[in-house]
Amino acid sequence: MVRPISTPEHLAFIEGRRSVSFLQTPAWGQVKNEWRAESIGWHREGTLVGAGLVLYRQVPRLKRYLAYLPEGPDIGWLDGDLQSWLAPMAAYLKQQGAFGIRIGPPVVTRRWHAATIKAAIADDALRTLGEVPADASDDTALDVAATLADLGWRQDSAEGGFSAGQPRYNFWVPLDGRSEDDVLAGMNQQWRRNIKKATKNGVEVTHGTRDDLAAFHRVYAETAERDHFTPRPLSYFERMWDALTAEASDRLTLYLAHHEGDLVAATTMVRVGEHAWYSYGASTSAKRDVRGSNAVQWQMMRDAMAAGATVYDMRGITETLDSDDPHLGLIQFKVGTGGDAVEYLGEWDLPLNRALYFAFTQYLKRRG
């Protein structure tokens, strides 16, 4: 059965797992305060065997909701019996007024190594990552997609690799069983050179406090203007800091890279168990040649290794390999770390009330 669980119950379950997405922690419900949040649990013979964070978005003027579980829920996705997990969840959420459910199965289907991606970028005949033969694929994970479709779930479109919610393609630097020297050796020459250059130039990377968020945000806003994206307000990062650090003191870390007293780069890292995520990053246009961005990334990797993380997750990339696409630079930056591109199943929807589901999705499209 599925029923609500308390925050302490949810956190205790997470503590017993190797990792779950930080988007599935109770604290994330406080960060996304424009949604109503609830922790739910799957119980079998009185034991909590699965958990998820549900975010409810209300339809304007109606007490009906889209129920969203970003990068979740944390259930037995590969145990071959998805119906026994998803059917009781759908029944419970329908009782709560949900007209539709959106999930993000945390299931990796394919992987491409850095060398494979580099070769594909150089091949003019290849335009997207999906066209490139994967170095590894998981047939059991791919079967999950077929099962979801058979159960009435619909895969969201993900133009260029980004859906309306979370990215389908991410970039991971594997850390399990590797030393710092191993990780450095796996990077390309440019990355290693830039890390050495930052050290030679005297770039210092330190951990920040809540009081440093304003300085981080100034650099972040400059980055947003330079790279043409809409920045989040400072209040969002303050809320993120308060919620995540209250849940666990080491859940969120702020990194600041200074050169001769000037802040040149700043980032945030989130960690849950054995998985660490690079979540936000920023750099100044001035002093880019001192390589503060490389220095801060390397420090995050080192800290993730020291904390026992097996994966350093650089988050989303698009699928493009087109040299004319401005997103290609992001892939090339991440590929330089020597990690892997990984493909998730993407996000899936289950309409419970088709008319409301269609109307709401059209409303979201109009809002952009």
From TrEMBL:
Keyword entries, A-Z: Acyltransferase, Cell shape, Cell wall biogenesis/degradation, Peptidoglycan synthesis, Transferase
Pfam family, one: FemAB
InterPro entries with a match to the protein in the record: Acyl_CoA_acyltransferase, FEMABX, PG_Glycine_Bridge_Synth
GO molecular function terms attached to this record: aminoacyltransferase activity
GO process annotations (BP): cell wall organization; peptidoglycan biosynthetic process; regulation of cell shape
Highest taxon of the lineage: Bacteria
Gene3D superfamilies cross-referenced by the UniProt entry: 3.40.630.30
PROSITE patterns: FEMABX
Family: Belongs to the FemABX family.
PANTHER family: LIPID II:GLYCINE GLYCYLTRANSFERASE (PTHR36174)
The protein's name: Aminoacyltransferase
Species annotation: Aeromicrobium terrae
